[in-house]
Write a structure and sequence with these properties.
- The chain is mainly alpha-helical.
- The termini are far apart.
- The chain has 6 helices and no strands.
Length: 105
């Protein structure tokens, strides 16, 4: 395969996540399908694995809380995934080569 034949998929659009959540709020049959068979409900949408996990992990009480007024709050959860920088120090003790035990275990 030459480099001209390589197809790089587009990043899943945030619009897809919005469309799913909008549909959950407005379409009771889709909502039921999402609860009963998330894979089938999400089949037509281009979502990232993280988005699929987040949506599939919602239970009925979570979906009951969705409304047009708070949809933006739920939509924002996708951007809440945190990836620390490589040089971030979280207060862990530095690694040392010293053997503090003073000998054999």
């Amino acid at each position: 395969m030459t480099s001209e034949q390589v197809v790089v998929p587009d990043e899943p659009a945030q619009d897809e996540l919005r469309a799913v959540l909008d549909r959950v709020v407005s379409d009771a049959q889709f909502r039921r399908l999402l609860l009963d068979d998330p894979k089938a409900a999400l089949a037509g949408y281009r979502l990232s694995e993280v988005q699929i996990l987040l949506i599939s992990g919602l239970d009925e009480s979570d979906l009951d809380k969705l409304s047009p007024d708070n949809l933006d709050e739920y939509f924002a959860v996708d951007s809440a995934v945190y990836t620390p920088d490589d040089d971030t120090d979280f207060g862990s003790a530095p690694e040392t080569d010293d053997d503090e035990s003073g000998g054999a275990p």
